[in-house]
Amino acid sequence: MSSAGDEGAVLRAARTEAGISLAKMASLTNYSKPYLGLVETGKRTVTVDLVIAYENGLGPIGDDMLRRRDITHPRVLKARRPTLTELARSIDDGDPGALRNTPSSRTVDFFLASKLSPSGVDHVRRWVRSGQTSTLRANALAVLSKMSIASDVPLIIEALENDDKLRFLSLASEVSKLTQWDWNLCKTIVREPSAAPQPRKLAKALTKEALLDSDAESRWCGAYLLKELVPVLGR
User: CA–CA distance from 15 to each of 8, 9, 155, 167, 184 (Å)?
Assistant: First the structure.
């Protein structure tokens, strides 16, 4: 990044890619919305502290491999805002809709996390525990994690530790978001870390995930996968 405008544009792209409004970003970072607007348009200088604040909310920014993007699952759910609004209403009413059998994207997760009513959030918590399909449980956990509610962290960790199918999907999604590798390769890496084409670079990305202040799912998955990679890194 060579100028304030370029740096601000990178932050803006990372924020919009995650489906987060400038107002929401302000609440996540404790900087004012007008100030962030000036930074993102290159009218104010990007500081190290601000980048860290963005990364705490969005994950690593910069290096292509270190940017968390949508998973590479061939059927990942990517919907336009009207459709997502309908999905949020459906969830509020207790019907998971497409979340039942279709892996959700980060954009969908962040959108739902910001739009669900208290009843919708309660439904999501219930689906984390007892959703009919592993896809629903994993999607519900991803949405709940994006809300960054401290009281939900024990539920998120319990699900990841005790639900084998949910854990596998969450770990594969974490590798996929970080690397953009083929979905089948990401699943293989979860089963056998030595299959990772670039284990040291993956470990670098996972280290940042493990240190996130928010998103308990990514933090837990980052730490878990980093531990599994240790024997590979020592070769």
Answer: 11, 10, 27, 27, 28
Strand ranges in the chain using DSSP code E only, listed in sequence order: none
177-197 burial, b at 16+ Cβ within 10 Å, e below that, comes to bbbbbebebbbbbbeebeebe
Closest CA to 138 of 173, 95, 185: 173
Q: What is the pLDDT of residues 192-208, one digit of tens each?
A: 998 999 898 899 889 88
Whether the CB-CB separation of 218 and 59 falls below 8 Å is answered with yes
* CA nearest neighbour of 139 among 118, 115, 170: 170
What span, in angstroms and rounded, lies between the C-alpha atoms of 67 and 61? 5
Task: Choose among 40, 39, 135: nearest CA to 96.
Answer: 135
Q: By CB neighbour count within 10 A (0-12 exposed, 13-18 middle, 19+ buried), where does 75 fall? A: exposed
CA distances, 110 to each of 14, 22, 78 (Å): 13, 13, 12
Provide the CA 227 distance to its chain's centre, in angstroms: 20
Tell me the CB-side half-sphere exposure of residue 2, using CA atoms within 13 A. Answer: 0
Q: Which two tokens stand for residue 88?
A: 């949020």
Q: Tell me whether residue 164 is exposed, middle or buried, using C-beta atoms within 10 angstroms of its C-beta: 0 to 12, 13 to 18, 19 or more.
A: exposed
Paired tokens of 183:
């979905």
Q: Whole-structure pTM over 0.85, yes or no?
A: no
How far is the C-alpha of 11 from the C-alpha of 223, rounded, in Å?
A: 25
pLDDT digits (tens, 9 = 90+) for 166-183: 999 999 999 998 888 999
Nearest one of 62, 42, 40 to 52, comparing CA atoms: 62
